[in-house]
Sequence to fold (320 residues):
Amino acid sequence: MEDIRLQMKIYLAPLEGITGYIFRNAYNGIYGSADKFFAPFISPSEKCPLTPRERKDLIPENNSGINLVPQILTRKSEYFIEAARELHTMGYGEVNLNLGCPSGTVCAKGKGAAFLTDTPELQSFLDDIYSYAATEDMKISIKTRLGYYNPDEFYDLMDIFNDYPVSELIIHPRIRSDFYKGDPRKAHFAYALEHSKNPLVYNGNIFAVKDYDDLTKQFNISLDPVMTGRGLISDPSLADKLKGIASETDFEKFRRLHDTLYHEYQKVMSPDINVLFKMRELWSYWQVLFDGKERDIKRLLKAKRYAEYEEIVYQIILSP
Fold:
């Protein structure tokens, strides 16, 4: 069982504003237990398949040694194909289609999870992009929710996905209105295990080894690969724990991760407060590691200068 765990594949889900190239490089260099990273989505337009900021995040020199998959968010196949072509010239052999984002601004434009409501247009879209993929030797994976309004929408969606050579179907078993709350609808993922013709990846609420073990018992199968986003950000040792490399949080590695991110953000951002906003966002996840330090973390989240932040943060991380 331990050998199986050691070999299991763990994917880092994309979190906008967090899992950019600075985080990916720091995490990969210090922990190295994630097998595939998914970049925060790009949203191509008619005249701009990638913005300069998106290109900087994805260029190979900023992602050396990282197994990275760019994610594309659009409902226009021509925009998807143009972005995929651009990414192919950068050396990418796989891209991911975002059919799961529940954001109000995204869904208002019919993208992300909202695209799941228009199955005729979705089928036409998939016809186009998989025809392109066949000519360019490009893999296209899909990250999806169960549906928009009702989880039972998933039954028809599964029939649609089965018509295409989806390299990996990553299922977050919630509907749009669930956002990230409540328990994932595991019965629908069990349906996917039984009926999908494409390789599956489970995504949703894996915050600890127990969560994975519970899924294994429920599905009577060792899920592999699995994708985790909030869980791995909250506890960067999670991938090590899932693989049996560590049994508890490695605070020495955590300190190195914190320091690396803090100093790398200082190189590309200014003034102090912008870097501290970025660190505050990370601490909104990391705080779960530091029981009893709630008062210090509240002070940290209000810090406005580097000196103030550093004084508080090292009180926290030097004595977890």
